[in-house]
Design a protein that fits this description.
The complex is a heterodimer of chains A (164) and B (518).
Chain A: H1 9-19, H2 26-37, H3 44-52, H4 56-65, E1 77-82, H5 85-88, H6 92-103, E2 109-110, E3 116-121, E4 133-135, E5 138-140, H7 145-157
Chain B: E1 3-6, H1 11-15, H2 18-31, E2 36-39, E3 53-57, E4 60-64, H3 72-77, E5 90-93, H4 98-101, H5 119-124, H6 129-135, H7 139-149, H8 161-170, E6 177-182, H9 191-198, H10 200-214, E7 218-223, H11 228-243, E8 259-264, H12 274-281, E9 305-309, H13 310-322, H14 324-328, E10 331-332, E11 335-336, E12 338-345, E13 351-356, H15 361-368, E14 378-383, E15 390-391, H16 402-407, E16 416-421, H17 426-440, H18 446-463, H19 468-485, H20 489-493, H21 495-504
Helix pairs in contact in B: 6-10, 6-13, 7-8, 7-10, 9-10, 9-11, 10-13, 17-18, 17-21, 18-19, 19-21
Classes of the chains: A alpha+beta (164), B alpha/beta (518).
The complex binds flavin mononucleotide, iron/sulfur cluster and FE2/S2 (inorganic) cluster (FES) (2 copies).
One FE2/S2 (inorganic) cluster binds at residues 82, 84, 86-87, 123-127, 130, 132 of chain A.
Chain lengths: 164, 518
């Protein structure tokens, strides 16, 4: 990963300063930090608390409430498998088992080569064309186990992106 | 003359490769020296035909689908650009496709027809007529129009929209807010997403009208983070609407103000509940608030706030442009207007179906849906999201309206219809309902937080054939405790799908445990 993804207190402060004037700024700030660094670093918590006049416990409480925010760095790609009912009806349970086996990880874990972090998601709004998954910001439909394998191969053979 | 070809770019079309189809079309056309203007429209909502490519012809738009990139050369060979029907994927005139022709599209009249971000397209298809009308009317007058339309909230609770607006209008305050609930968390629903991705100005217009009606100058769209494309489209549409004077400090030169901003949720189903949503918008954990006070009186930052679902707000431009009666003329009983049904799950022809209230599930699932995708027998259907009942065949013929469904303990909810074939294990579905509640509970009430955890364990024991009768009795008691002792519908309604599975599909709870089956 290139340097711009590595967080510094200054970079965190810059994200906060750009948004802290907004009413209810904490969620937009957390999104901005996670979008930029891939996760919300522990070290960002006191900076947010200080800047927003909240306690660290309050900020921690918010981060842990929401499934979307993570506090450790993800792999190069985040892959979410939809676990909700409409996808269940067309084989999401089998897909989920296949995904875990193929990647050798459970939910919230990252493959040893740090290529892929596996996450669960409850509906991607693609319910007429399931099973659905999300890879980073892209949603894909009608994912069979074979299509899943092709996708994983595709993600792994891509040259390491230079971000920044 | 250059032929216009449409390739949709909503999430579903993209999820099935629409970008690759668009690229292939451009490349092939270039190689063949054909002139073609590619338009990236929204989706018509015919999900099973996506990617649905359309070609403009003198007779109207002609459809082909579902198109894979590898189909493109043969489609061009057989006369795609002339709208020929010489290819197996040819569907004829789009508007004559029975699935679409049989619908009553009031809210979704424009989706798929236009380029979602083009204000010119929006204006050419009746856009902003409702707002222009609202700008000439008194706030009370706008509220009366919405009341007369009979519009009830499409987010699930079906509360009359006009009455909610009246409360906000009648509550004096230095600042009021319009909050759009775009959390669309129910599995099987995607109508909000389609509205936002395919016709974003309609929602912007509806929210601006709501602002004029109640005296609110700031709006927020609380959008789930699972919808990255909707975020992009809405942000772009808001910027363009501001530039064109449909949002901002001086709406169309009237001196009236309405600002709008999109805020992202963060993967919490409970934040679709309106008070949890308001907490989240304030930057807090999404804990459900006690009511009263109603959000209409003390809502966002303690100020009077209209919280409405995307589709409730999206219905308003039509009502203001065409009049309350044009809307109220559709529907049955106390359910007026149209309902956006979303046919999902194990279905051959899934998609968006906008119809007046009163149709039946059988019509939807068989006539529109064509049965299951797997070709197996249909066994159960969950209507209204994860907190609503599973319905067996004996309940597929009642008319879809709020009152009829409520009478049998079912819900219309946000209009999601999720179909299951006969391979479904309803005990497993019941277990998932409890598991989902456990994962998504805000944690405020013990019956919801602990009850759902116990629920999963008890169902596991039943499925493993341990003390089955005692555990079935325990599950019944647990459901009652959750129903009676929960602050909101998360804990209070999770028992509905569980109990419906128990009641209508008891055999699934009586199976021999895994491994013991002979
Ligand atoms: C657990 C739970 C989840 C909900 N999720 C949504 C949702 O995703 N979208 C929505 O519009 N309403 C949702 N609601 C309903 C809202 O609380 C509220 O009734 C609605 O936003 C009001 O708008 P309406 O009158 O236009 O329907 C949910 C309610 C509960 C209890
Ligand atoms: S019922 Fe569940 S989700 Fe609702 S307020 Fe109580 S704990 Fe929170
Ligand atoms: S249930 Fe999987 S996309 Fe909606
Ligand atoms: S609020 Fe305390 S148990 Fe529900």
């Amino acid at each position: 990963m290139s340097d711009s993804r590595e967080w510094t207190p200054q970079a965190i402060q810059a994200e906060i300063d750009a948004l802290k004037h907004k009413p209810g700024a904490l969620l937009p700030i957390l999104h901005a930090i996670q979008d930029r660094f891939g996760f919300v670093p522990e070290g960002a918590v006191p900076i947010m608390a200080e800047s927003l006049g909240q306690t660290r416990a309050e900020v921690h409480g918010v981060i842990s409430f929401y499934h979307h925010f993570r506090t450790s760095p993800p792999g190069r790609h985040v892959l979410q498998v939809c676990r909700a009912e409409a996808c269940q009806s067309v084989g999401a349970r089998a897909l989920e088992a296949h995904a875990k086996k193929r990647l050798g990880v459970d939910y919230h874990q990252t493959t040893a080569d740090r290529d892929i972090t596996l996450e669960a998601v409850y509906c991607l709004g693609n319910c007429a064309c399931g099973p659905s998954i999300r890879v980073d910001d892209e949603i894909r439909g009608r994912i069979t186990p074979e299509a899943f394998d092709d996708l994983v191969d595709e993600l792994r053979t891509q040259p390491l992106e230079v971000i920044g | 003359m250059s032929v216009r070809v449409f390739v949709p770019r909503d999430t579903t079309a993209l999820s099935l490769g629409a970008d690759a189809v668009a690229r292939r079309l451009e490349r092939e056309a270039q190689q063949r020296g054909l002139e073609l203007t590619l338009v990236r429209n929204g989706s018509r909502g015919l999900a099973w035909l996506e990617p649905l490519v359309e070609v403009e012809t003198p007779a109207g738009r002609v459809a082909y689908g579902p198109v894979a990139p590898s189909d493109v050369p043969a489609l061009l060979d057989t006369g795609l650009l002339e709208g020929s029907d010489n290819h197996p994927l040819a569907q004829g005139l789009t508007e004559a496709i029975p699935y679409l022709a049989r619908q009553q599209r009031l809210t979704f009249a424009r989706i798929g027809v236009t380029d979602p971000l083009s204000i010119v397209d929006y204006l050419a298809h009746d856009g902003f007529r409702g707002l222009e009308a609202a700008l000439t009317r008194e706030p009370q007058d706008i509220v009366e129009e919405v009341k007369a339309s009979g519009l009830r909230g499409r987010g699930g609770a079906a509360f009359p929209t006009g009455i909610k607006w009246q409360t906000v209008l009648d509550t004096p305050a230095d600042q009021k807010y319009i909050v759009c609930n775009a959390d669309e968390g129910d599995s099987g629903t995607f109508a909000d997403r389609l509205a936002m991705e395919c016709d974003p100005y309609m929602l912007i217009e509806g929210m601006a009208i709501a602002g004029l009606a109640v005296g609110a100058t700031q709006g927020y769209i609380y959008l789930r983070s699972e919808y990255p494309l909707a975020k992009q489209v809405l942000d772009a549409a808001i910027a363009r609407a501001e530039a064109a004077g449909y949002l901002g400090d001086d709406l169309r030169g009237s001196g009236r103000t309405f600002h709008l901003e999109v805020r992202l949720g963060a993967g919490a189903y409970i934040c679709g509940e309106e008070t949890s949503l308001l907490e989240s918008l304030e930057g807090k954990r999404g804990l459900v608030r006690f009511k009263p006070p109603l959000p209409a009186i003390e809502g966002l930052f303690g100020r009077p706030t209209v919280v409405n679902n995307v589709l409730s707000l999206a219905a308003v431009p039509f009502i203001l442009a065409e009049g309350a009666e044009a809307y109220a003329n559709h529907g049955m009983g106390r359910s007026r207007g149209t309902l956006a049904l979303q046919l999902a799950g194990n279905v051959k022809r899934g998609g968006l179906i906008e119809l007046a209230f009163g149709t039946t599930l059988r019509t939807l699932m068989e006539d529109f849906g064509g049965g299951t995708a797997s070709g197996r027998a249909l066994r159960a259907v969950q209507v209204g999201g994860p907190l609503c009942a599973y319905l067996p065949e004996s309940q597929w013929d009642m008319p879809l309206d709020y009152e009829t469904f409520a009478e049998v303990g079912a819900g219309v909810g946000h209009g999601g219809v999720v179909m299951f074939d006969d391979s479904v294990d309803m005990a497993e579905q019941a277990r998932f309902s409890m598991e989902f509640c456990k994962v998504e509970s805000c944690g405020k009430c013990t019956p919801c937080r602990i009850g759902s955890t116990r629920g999963v364990e008890v169902i596991d024991r039943i499925r493993a054939n341990q003390n089955r009768d005692a555990n079935l009795a325990l599950l019944g008691e647990l459901c009652e405790t959750m129903e009676d002792g929960s602050l909101c519908a998360m804990g209070g309604m999770t028992p509905f799908p569980v109990q419906s599975a128990l009641k209508h599909f008891p055999d699934d709870f009586q199976r021999a445990p895994e491994g013991d089956r002979s």
